């Protein structure tokens, strides 16, 4: 990883995920003055935060739980699906002091929760966040976790047989510019993976794909379907016709202007059986 150095120690590379403009500006003003910090980017969007995390590989993320698009809790779940050898340290900020919510985000990868309603935060919030990151920096390495692995009952680590296939599917979707890091991208990759395992060639959305995704991501069938359809529609709107015709050779209904969800999954699943 290419880093900028401050003296002998590399700067902390931080991604700021905060949708509130006033909060964001205060944090940026503090962080950008710190000699040991480099703010690599900021966003108020969950999907963009996932994309930036995968591409930029920050050392730490300051994550607001409430966002313009998506939310911090969902971000944590989708972060687990990214193929990363080294996970960033995550400091979450939130107005809630609800114990169940805080326990949930701590259990799903957050290293520290900064409650905005606590005394002193309104006056010195950014300084408190920076101070915590500096204290925790020596322990950033302890959040490293090999991806594409599972632990079997004997306690030995074994390779996840699906990790390589997920990368191949993602690479194929990348050729038509399905935006990586989005929830729709994640659902489409998983759906194609599931369908590719059915050697009969049948794509069973109702009995195989939707139930597995609903169980894995704890979301409704309606939400899964809507998000995947929306991602396909956006891809067909922004990608050049020449690229689509070259990469997606199955005929598309000219009146609809884009493939149906099931036929899209079926087409790509057939490439990986």
Q: How does this structure look, described?
A:
The modification 4-aspartylphosphate is found at residue 64. It is a single chain. Helix 4 (99-107) links the parallel strand 6 (89-94) and strand 7 (112-115). The two termini are 35 Å apart. The protein has two domains: 5-143, Response regulator (Rossmann fold), CATH 3.40.50.2300; 159-270, Arc Repressor Mutant, subunit A, CATH 1.10.10.10. The chain has helices at residues 21-33, 46-56, 72-79, 99-107, 121-136, 163-174, 183-196, 205-217, 221-238, 241-247, 261-270, and strands spanning 5-6, 9-10, 12-17, 37-43, 60-64, 89-94, 112-115, 149-151, 157-159. It is an alpha/beta fold and 273 residues long. The strands form three sheets. A five-stranded parallel beta sheet has the order 4-3-5-6-7, sandwiched between helices. The chain contains eleven helices and nine strands. It is elongated.
